[in-house]
Write a structure and sequence with these properties.
Helices cover 0% and strands 45% of the residues. With 162 residues, the chain is mostly beta strands. It has a single domain (3-10, 21-158), classed as Immunoglobulin-like, CATH 2.60.40. Strand 10 (133-141) and strand 11 form a beta hairpin. Mean pLDDT is 78; it is low at 1-32.
Length: 162
């Protein structure tokens, strides 16, 4: 089985009209495999840069139709800095990742000052023409509530030839 998550980025400079082989920046083209594919989306690091403990109060997937969060969201320990790997893309659940056994439900979880956690959830393709989606995390710290909309959008894309 060949599986992948296509990260959504904006492309420009395309000629007017539809190119003969489709437009790779148009997520409705080239991804016409059947719905129901589920993968781990573990591309997001939540790093607490403050001096106060952060408490996660909500996680939801927003954006285009055809993608759904189909598990609870979890936080998995991840060391500080960008050199330590995140879970990233894997089959669901990501049991091959050693830190998965230390997961905790994201909602209600705390991230201590200076600590980093990997946000992980199952993402399922629900449409033959999905649009990219991104997680939105709500949290509190020091009596103030915040909302973080991740910059990277993802879309589940699985090879049609499985």
């Amino acid at each position: 089985m060949v599986a992948g998550v296509l990260l959504g980025f904006a492309f420009s400079g395309q000629a007017a009209g539809q190119p003969p082989l489709g437009n790779p920046a148009d997520f409705a083209q080239g991804l016409d495999c059947t719905p129901g594919k589920t993968l781990t989306d573990g591309f997001y690091a939540l790093e607490n840069h403050s001096r106060q403990t952060v408490t996660v109060t909500g996680v939801r997937l927003v954006g285009g139709p055809g993608q759904a969060m189909t598990s609870r969201a979890y936080l998995v320990p991840a060391g500080p800095g960008v050199n330590l790997p995140l879970i990233g893309l894997q089959p669901w659940p990501p049991v091959s990742y050693p830190e998965w056994k230390y997961r905790r439900l994201a909602i209600g979880a705390k991230i201590a000052p200076g600590k980093r956690a990997n946000l992980v959830f199952a993402q399922t393709r629900t449409s033959t023409h999905p649009q990219p989606a991104r997680p939105v995390i709500t949290y509190s710290a020091g009596g103030t509530s915040y909302t973080l909309a991740e910059a990277t959008e993802t879309i589940v894309a699985v090879s049609c030839g499985e």
